[in-house]
């Protein structure tokens, strides 16, 4: 039997947008978009080129200010909140703050990312050894992301896919409640795609994930909810099976009803 309390917790909306509009000099790039992003779920934003995915992403992370509409994070209105504050509140975009230093090891990279929320950020002149107390947390994160075998390897020596995983690890160090991933599979081979997909699935059990992704088989495999955008508007929404069977979505992608 499904535990009602668990069900309720898992379907909790952590990020929502209502009536989101973005106009650029009279051109409406995003028009009346409503979104609900849930804890414990992976939500995909898909659509043909120019559909408005990146603009929605930038609106949610506050890199762009909406022309109209309202955005709420964990019940707080963040419509006018600056991006750095939104990140501290738990809405973090991968690669927003994290940087991977190629000549440092996986563990050193994660430790540097971990010192940021702890308030040590300004003490960058301290030797790396001063970060020793972060070892346990760094190792837990490294284990969670399947990088234990690479802990002492230089970031530069990792495969492309594992570098991407390390980038996700440094983002998770900021303890996001909502993680936004912009095309996490871009440029990766089949094997790396499968590995990163597994990692994202694991990561999402304790957080909400919103991703823009062009690889539809990844969307089909790991995303619980899919929003299809076209010309700035929501064309369809639902699980992958539902939206991929929608004739309007097929037309948007293929230009006909085939
Ligand atoms: N700063 C801007 N000024 C003017 N128009 C813009 C700006 N940013 C985006 N647009 C326009 O808004 C529309 C949506 O662009 P956006 O980049 O959000 O689409 P996308 O779905 O992310 O596309 P892609 O899959 O190609 O990345 C496009 O027509 C684009 O030209």
UniProtKB/TrEMBL annotation:
<dbReference type="Pfam" id="PF00005">
    <property type="entry name" value="ABC_tran"/>
</dbReference>
<feature type="domain" description="ABC transporter">
    <location>
        <begin position="15"/>
        <end position="256"/>
    </location>
</feature>
<dbReference type="InterPro" id="IPR003439">
    <property type="entry name" value="ABC_transporter-like_ATP-bd"/>
</dbReference>
<keyword id="KW-0067">ATP-binding</keyword>
<dbReference type="InterPro" id="IPR051120">
    <property type="entry name" value="ABC_AA/LPS_Transport"/>
</dbReference>
<keyword id="KW-0547">Nucleotide-binding</keyword>
<dbReference type="GO" id="GO:0005524">
    <property type="term" value="F:ATP binding"/>
</dbReference>
<keyword id="KW-0813">Transport</keyword>
<protein>
    <submittedName>
        <fullName>ABC transporter ATP-binding protein</fullName>
    </submittedName>
</protein>
<dbReference type="Pfam" id="PF12399">
    <property type="entry name" value="BCA_ABC_TP_C"/>
</dbReference>
<dbReference type="InterPro" id="IPR032823">
    <property type="entry name" value="BCA_ABC_TP_C"/>
</dbReference>
<dbReference type="GO" id="GO:0005886">
    <property type="term" value="C:plasma membrane"/>
</dbReference>
<dbReference type="InterPro" id="IPR027417">
    <property type="entry name" value="P-loop_NTPase"/>
</dbReference>
<dbReference type="GO" id="GO:0016887">
    <property type="term" value="F:ATP hydrolysis activity"/>
</dbReference>
<dbReference type="InterPro" id="IPR003593">
    <property type="entry name" value="AAA+_ATPase"/>
</dbReference>
